[in-house]
Amino acid sequence: MSNRARGRSRRRLLLISAALGGLSVLLGACSSGNAASTSSGSGSASINLAPFQKALQADYKGHFTAPPTTAPAHKKGVNLWIISCGQASEGCSQPVANAKEAAQALGWKATVFDGNFGIGDAYNTGIRQAIADHAQAIITIGVNCNQAKSGYQAAKAAGIVVVGADSYDCTDPAVHDGANVMSATVKFTPSFPSAADTSRERGIAKADWIIVHTKGHAQVINTDFAGLTGGVYENQGFISELAKCKTCKIVKTITFTPPDTSDGTLKQEWASALAQFPNA
Questions:
Q1: Higher-confidence residue: 45 or 273?
Q2: Against a cut of 0.85, is the pTM above it?
């Protein structure tokens, strides 16, 4: 688990470094073991675990390369706003903290706005407050085009540089809502350059881990984060990879949205599903 935690921290730091680097440019202008197979309880089906073990090894090793050793010159005194997808979630708050720290190291003024999962049109409100504060740049963390389109359009009309970090622009196939409204989006690794690629691969990695650690007999309660585009891609990757395990099965799918993660709804759904499927 410690390796996975370090991996998450590294991904967050690299994501924020890429976001700030993009702003500078725009403003300037598990062990493998042996290959194995396992049989089902009845002995009527088997699965070769080797491909899943190999994929899991690659995931533990990581897909990131060394960051650039040089960076473009940056402006001083930039008024930056960071719009968080929801500070109650570590997946939002940690990248925001990293972005703020990096911005302050550049001598920039960094203002954090808690988008609170978009409740009460908070994403649009945050972007419009940034415009009113004469922000020169905005980073959105996990705020997609279709969740704050009018705010994005207003920022674009005001000439503000907007970089989406784990945010999907309007032209993304899963969003499909008109022309781009962001100045740029963060590029990830050479292997998985876009947020969609990375989210999909995250779902595949989850499936590989489950398949290997259940020896090909996973009974899965699947969580479908349908409220976010990244969750859609992650679920696609998970389902497609788990389908390769013919002795695995999704026994129940819990579909949830961002507010469900903080108001107790998801916890209640989990408790009910575990009571229904105690062997999952």
A1: 273
A2: no
